Amino acid sequence: MQFEGYGLMDIRIITEERELNQLSAMAAKSRFSLGRVYPEEECPVRTCFQRDRDRVIHSKAFRRLMYKTQAFIYPEGDHFRTRLTHTLEVSQIARTISRALQLNEDLTEAIALGHDLGHIPFGHIGEHDLNRVVPGGFRHNEQSVRIVERLKKNGRGLNLAAEVRDEILNHRGAGKPMTAEGKVVQLSDKIAYVNHDIDDALRTGKLKEEDLPKDCTALLGHKVTARIDFLVKDVIKTSLEEGKIKMSSAAKEALYELRGFMFKNIYTNPEVVSEHKSFETYLSRIYFYYDKNFGSIPQDYLHIYGENELKERIICDYIAGMTDRFVVKLYEKLRL
């Protein structure tokens, strides 16, 4: 490729032109993005979605996912998933599907990397604990949006494109993403966490492959890798046939049956949850401590807020940003 005859600004323009010429009609085009809350000068090299991907991956919130629970709190072993590894796995699955369907991989990656930024310590147990005490409740997808819109860059957030913010909010099952890329991430999230949580449960010995519903494994496969491979190909094939992003009815039914199986046997199983019983009120106790001792929240954290922010929301933000190990140390320090 010859680089003579154009400058840096042409690189972004050429990339945008390539999107227009090569991506499918379903794909979001960076040139036609709905834009940011705060207008910015365009990067000469990267498209808006490439910049958003980079902003997410370089954020502290992204790095903290390394020390946040996916399915098992403080598992013994180096090969269990964390929120960070889950996020990377979702990104990989989503990019594979997007490339096959000629969608915008940069937008797909930005959404996938940012979709779980708002997850809190201790996984399902932590979210349930905080949800029952915070006024208005707690939902991790809304917290993810709050991080990228409010809690970075001294209250201005990461200033991501509208498409990325919308898809982060709507990546959960009931959400309705505005772009095909967002729908791909929504499906990829389920494919990833159901199968990878099964893999981790098998590793703990709490499940055996033969315990899984036979009708599901007969269709999807008898190994985690086989099931992921089947589901990825199913989404690609069904989407190509129907002209919209979707999974076949049979595959979706099997995946959701596996998801229900995991909720019953792992996520909410009293015998499994009892092993983590000591953690089930950590976050609520810390919340009530700061509700009574609001001045104890570090001042260098509070500088991002204006005068009209609710105290309860600030406390929630502070706790949601903690890692598992930080919570344990803080809990011991406060002697709760």
Overall geometric form: flat
First-last Cα distance: 63 Å
In percent terms, what proportion of residues is strand?
Answer: under 5%
Determine the number of helices (DSSP H or I, runs of at least 4 residues).
17
Number of strands: 0
Keywords, separated by commas or semicolons:
flat; 336 residues; mainly alpha
3D structure, described in words:
By secondary structure, the chain is mainly alpha-helical. The chain is 58% helix and 0% strand. The mean pLDDT is 91.
List the helices and strands and how they pair.
Elements: H1 8-22, H2 48-57, H3 60-64, H4 83-100, H5 105-114, H6 123-131, H7 140-149, H8 162-169, H9 180-204, H10 214-220, H11 224-242, H12 249-267, H13 270-273, H14 282-292, H15 299-302, H16 311-320, H17 324-334
Helix pairs in contact: 2-5, 4-5, 4-9, 4-11, 5-8, 5-9, 7-8, 8-9, 9-11, 9-12, 10-12, 14-16, 14-17
Short description, anyone?
This protein has 336 residues and is an all-alpha fold. It is built from 17 helices and no strands. 58% of the residues lie in helices and 0% in strands.
